[in-house]
Design goal:
Strand order of the largest sheet: 1-2-5-4-3
Oligomer: single chain
Order of helices and strands: HEEEEEHHHEHEEHEEHEE
Number of helices: 7
Number of strands: 12
Largest sheet: 5 strands, antiparallel
Helix content: 40-55%
Structural class: alpha+beta
Distance between the termini: 31 Å
């Protein structure tokens, strides 16, 4: 799952900082513990040095103070002497608890005798010191952690502001407009400056290609329509001549029909190009109920002999759109249900606040239903169809955000438009 780059960077920084700082705390604790142990050893050695000198200067001094030192005569000590550290514990009467100590036991020679000296240092104070220093270090690292995350977040927001601005401009840009897209080329970040420069050039090239293509389509459609009109006129003149044979008349009728379909295809392709280029900006409140009844009346006059039975259920629905496009959308759907019907068939139209559904009887189609709204996709009776009617419907739906769909079940075709 994709994430915003700033959020992903913050998450990675969070986890890595947490791991590094947790590891640092552990390492710091062990280093501090080792240093405290070393400090105890040096403190005990220094204490022993002072007590040995004091005993040599005054052999009658007190030989033992609990928890501080003890001097014991021991002639069994090896000639080389010894020194070692160990842990021990004493019961503290004032605190009424057993306290742990570290002791250093060593030997020394005085007044012709060997003595064993043991000095003690309390572990409690050392432990308290370690804990306090460690907690201070944890608090400092936690504060540093929060500050780094905060500064990184603020810095990222500031650094990525030009990029967000660029994305907003690109998202709101409409190539069908005449104006080009001019992005800021001095954002303060070299990479973003370069990005904006390249995007501006790319959009300008795309706009130039689009305008050329738009002009070509319009000119081509206009120029093609002229010879098609001339061909139809000449064909009508030939048909009206009295000396042509029946076979010739049939051939001319087929040619006329093919010319009409070619002319209609040219008009539909031009209409598709205009819709794609958003050349229908004018919008108004369109009463779909009145529009459907108007279209049905027109088709009743056009298909008098083969007009199916129509049942319409409609509520008062108004849509903010271009009136010509809505008439084209509804007209193509109704015409499709009439043309692709069977003898004695029926058509049911249901208009609600959020959906227009047109069902009709008819044979199963030969094209994949998923491709039905594609250009030049034809079902049955393909010889009389340009294959562009539902493509126009799809293009209009895309323009206004409608959702077209088709279903077929038990001999019933249903085309639905969800508003």
């Amino acid at each position: 799952m994709s994430q915003a780059l700033q959020r992903k960077n913050a998450r990675m920084l969070f986890w890595w900082l947490w791991l590094v700082m947790a590891g640092s705390c552990i390492i710091f604790y062990y280093l501090m513990h080792m240093q405290a142990h070393h400090m105890q050893q040096k403190q005990l050695q220094l204490t022993q040095f002072h007590y040995i000198n004091a005993f040599k200067a005054n052999p009658s001094m007190q030989l033992a103070v609990p928890g501080e030192y003890s001097i014991v005569e021991n002639n069994a000590i090896p000639a080389g002497g010894f020194s070692f550290m160990d842990d021990t514990a004493f019961f503290d009467v004032s605190k009424r608890e057993v306290l742990s100590y570290t002791k250093l036991t060593g030997s020394f020679f005085a007044n012709g005798k060997m003595y064993m000296l043991t000095t003690y240092v309390s572990d409690t104070e050392i432990s308290h010191l370690i804990i306090k220093v460690f907690l201070c270090e944890v608090c400092i690292l936690a504060l540093l952690f929060i500050v780094i995350i905060y500064i990184n977040d603020r810095a990222s927001r500031s650094l990525w502001t030009p990029f967000r601005t660029t994305m907003q401009q690109l998202g709101s840009y409409n190539i069908t407009g005449n104006a080009g897209l001019i992005l800021e080329e001095n954002t303060g970040v070299t990479e973003f400056d370069q990005l904006n420069t390249e995007l501006t050039a790319l959009v300008e090239r795309s706009r130039h290609v689009y305008l050329n293509q738009k002009q070509f389509v319009e000119n081509a459609s206009h120029e093609i329509q002229t010879p098609l009109t001339i061909i139809r006129s000449k064909l009508e003149m030939l048909i009206n001549q009295g000396e042509i044979t029946e076979n010739t008349a049939l051939l001319l009728a087929d040619i006329t029909d093919a010319n009409d379909r070619l002319s209609q295809m040219n008009k539909n392709l031009l209409m598709l190009a205009k819709i794609e280029n958003n050349q229908f900006p004018d919008e108004q409140q369109v009463d779909m109920n009145l529009l459907l009844h108007k279209i049905i009346e027109n088709y009743m006059l056009q298909y008098q002999e083969h007009f199916p039975q129509i049942d319409i259920t409609a509520t008062s629905v108004t849509i903010q759109a271009n009136a010509s496009l809505m008439e084209m959308l509804a007209g193509n759907l109704i015409k499709n249900s009439i043309v692709h019907n069977i003898a004695g068939g029926w058509v049911k139209i249901n208009l609600s606040q959020h959906c227009l559904a047109i069902s009709n009887s008819g044979p199963n189609i030969s094209v994949n239903p998923e491709l039905l709204f594609n250009r030049f996709s034809k079902g049955n009776d393909a010889a009389r169809s340009t294959g562009l009617g539902l493509a126009l419907v799809k293009q209009i739906c895309q323009l206004y955000g409608f959702k077209p769909s088709y279903t077929y079940y038990a001999g019933v075709h249903t085309l639905s438009i969800v508003f």
